[in-house]
Amino acid sequence: MNRRVFVALLLGSATGGALRLAADTPVEIRIGAKKFEFHPNKVTAKLGQPVVLVLTSEDRIHGFKMTDFGLRTDIVPGQETRVTLTPEKAGSFTFFCDVFCGDGHEDMDGTLVVEA
Ligand SMILES: [Cu+2]
Q1: How many C-beta atoms lie closer than 10 Å to residue 111's C-beta?
Q2: How remote is the CA of residue 101 from the centroid of ligand 1, in Å?
Q3: Of 27, 31, 38, 57, whose CA is between 20 and 30 Å from 10?
Q4: pLDDT at residue number 11
Q5: Taking a C-beta distance cutoff of 8 angstroms, is the pair 70, 84 a contact?
Q6: Is the pLDDT of residue 54 over 60?
Q7: Is 50 exposed, middle or buried (0-12, 13-18, 19+ CB in 10 A)?
Q8: How far away, in angstroms, is 17 Cα from ligand 1 center?
Q9: Distance 95 CA to ligand 1 centre (A)
Q10: Residues with CB under 5 A from ligand 1 (ion)
Q11: Would you give the DSSP letter of residue 55?
Q12: Predicted confidence (pLDDT) at residue 21 exceeds the cutoff of 70
């Protein structure tokens, strides 16, 4: 192998690795919860791009449930709850609070938009 080809191969694998790393590095999306809303209540992710949802609560225990991705967790005040997912389908998916938190609890929901 001549030297020029060798260097080109090295460069090729280095940039390929960096691109792969960027695609696999989870994107952090922070979502706050309080009576009776998530904020933001609409977040966006890319198809196949790993996402870490960082969930916090400002007042009391809330729930976070996203049926389409089989996810649910409590959101406890004073701590960050991290949920990882990799969207394998595009579309709009609803998440909602599943811990009764008072009048208005039924309206506590939001949307994850997965762009193709
Ligand atoms: Cu609730």
Answers
A1: 16
A2: 4
A3: 27
A4: 44
A5: no
A6: yes
A7: middle
A8: 43
A9: 12
A10: 97, 101, 105, 108
A11: E
A12: no
